[in-house]
């Protein structure tokens, strides 16, 4: 199936300065444009211990009990951490290479990064997403975003011009994460009582995008935000935490709950498209990234979405899911 490249333009964004470069200055206060009074406080106090995001064991998902745990996590949270069977789903060595290469990528000199910067009115490349005016408040973080699959939608000035070792590593990682995403989607389809082939029809030839995030130390983390509260306009997002710093929060019953990343695990969340496919059974939940004053935080997210053109008859057939 062919996909219209025009339909793959997932938004546009104005060019903004690099926060990583800004953070290298001896700042004592956050510049006004980064003060986020429009967001909930990043570190609200809680009188009681907060619940934790469910953890799913990928190796046990063929059991009815673990499948029900997955179903419950998707229904009640829209988020979960998935433990991997080491060297089976995604190899340990590949994950470690990704972590190392992403950290080195953000250490590139600014002259090299500029070659990969967003072009005017585009979202792919270095920068921030969905900045639509010069007055808009900004996030305390840089991102590098690009479409990875299908390969013919890759921007010729981005993926081919990445450092060779990073490019080779991400090529493998993209394929491995597509396989992992499809396995998770098929398990979700089974838990929803869908036809076993439905998820493949929807997502097998869909679009995959990659977003690398860098949140530098912030002099006033209590007034800034790394990534604004949002839900993902995709089917499924799989996030790998690059270093040990926390920062991801998910909104559960009106409360922002921090996610403490586990070793050998990915954080997975339901996107808007999956909420539609499940007829609202699996909600696409708001989440955000906070920052700290001590150390940078890095992550890489793989976003999987459906085919751009999905038969109306298929979507109508999903309306029975409850």
TrEMBL record:
PROSITE patterns: FE2OG_OXY. Pfam families: 2OG-FeII_Oxy (PF03171), DIOX_N (PF14226). GO terms for molecular function: metal ion binding; oxidoreductase activity. Residues 206-306 form the Fe2OG dioxygenase domain. InterPro entries: DIOX_N, IPNS-like_FE2OG_OXY, IPNS-like_sf, Oxoglu/Fe-dep_dioxygenase_dom, Plant_2OG-oxidoreductases. Keywords: Iron, Metal-binding, Oxidoreductase. The keyword Metal-binding applies. PANTHER family: OXOGLUTARATE/IRON-DEPENDENT DIOXYGENASE (PTHR47991). Belongs to the iron/ascorbate-dependent oxidoreductase family. This is Fe2OG dioxygenase domain-containing protein. It comes from Gossypium schwendimanii (Cotton).
């Amino acid at each position: 199936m062919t996909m219209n490249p025009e339909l793959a333009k997932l938004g546009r964004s104005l060019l903004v300065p690099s926060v990583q470069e800004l953070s290298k200055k001896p700042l004592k206060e956050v510049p006004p444009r980064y003060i986020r009074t429009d967001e909930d406080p990043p570190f609200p106090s809680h009188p009681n211990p907060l619940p934790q995001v469910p953890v799913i064991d990928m190796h046990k998902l063929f059991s009815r009990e673990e499948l029900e745990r997955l179903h419950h996590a998707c229904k009640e949270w829209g988020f979960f951490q998935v433990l991997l069977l080491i060297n089976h789903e995604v190899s340990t060595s590949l994950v470690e290479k990704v972590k190392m290469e992403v950290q080195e990528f953000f250490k590139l000199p600014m002259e090299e990064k500029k070659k990969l910067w967003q072009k005017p009115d585009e979202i792919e490349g270095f920068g921030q997403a969905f900045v639509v005016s010069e007055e808009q408040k900004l996030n305390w973080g840089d991102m590098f975003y690009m479409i990875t699959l299908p390969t013919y939608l890759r921007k010729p000035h981005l993926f081919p011009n990445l450092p060779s070792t990073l490019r080779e590593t991400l090529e493998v990682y993209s394929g491995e994460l597509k396989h992992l995403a499809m396995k998770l989607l098929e398990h979700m389809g089974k838990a929803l009582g869908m036809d076993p082939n439905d998820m493949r029809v929807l997502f097998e030839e869909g679009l995959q995008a990659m977003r690398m995030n860098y949140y530098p130390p912030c002099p006033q983390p209590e007034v800034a935000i790394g990534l604004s509260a949002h839900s993902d306009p995709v089917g499924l997002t799989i996030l790998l935490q690059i270093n040990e710093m926390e920062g991801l929060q998910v909104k559960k019953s009106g409360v922002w709950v921090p996610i403490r990343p586990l070793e050998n695990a990915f954080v997975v969340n339901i996107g808007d498209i999956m909420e539609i496919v499940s007829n609202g059974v699996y909600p696409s939940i708001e989440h955000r990234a906070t920052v700290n004053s001590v150390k940078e935080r890095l992550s890489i997210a793989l976003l999987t979405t459906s085919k751009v053109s999905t038969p109306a008859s298929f979507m109508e057939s999903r309306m029975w899911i409850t």
